[in-house]
Amino acid sequence: MLKIVLLGGGNVAQHLLEVFSKTPTTTVVQCYNRNLSTIENFQKHTEITNNLEQLKPADVYIIAIKDDAIADFSRSLPLTNKLVVHTSGNVPMLTLADKNRRGVFYPLQSFSKEKEVNFSKIPICIEAENEADLKTLQTLAEAISQHVYTITSEQRKTLHVGAVFVNNFVNQLYQIGSEICEENKIPFEILQPLISETSEKIKTLTPLEAQTGPAKREDTATINSHLKLLKNEDFKDIYKLITKVIIKTHGREKL
Amino acid sequence: MLKIVLLGGGNVAQHLLEVFSKTPTTTVVQCYNRNLSTIENFQKHTEITNNLEQLKPADVYIIAIKDDAIADFSRSLPLTNKLVVHTSGNVPMLTLADKNRRGVFYPLQSFSKEKEVNFSKIPICIEAENEADLKTLQTLAEAISQHVYTITSEQRKTLHVGAVFVNNFVNQLYQIGSEICEENKIPFEILQPLISETSEKIKTLTPLEAQTGPAKREDTATINSHLKLLKNEDFKDIYKLITKVIIKTHGREKL
Question: Which of A116, B166, B196, B249 has the greatest count of CB atoms below 10 A from its CB?
Answer without folding.
Answer: B166
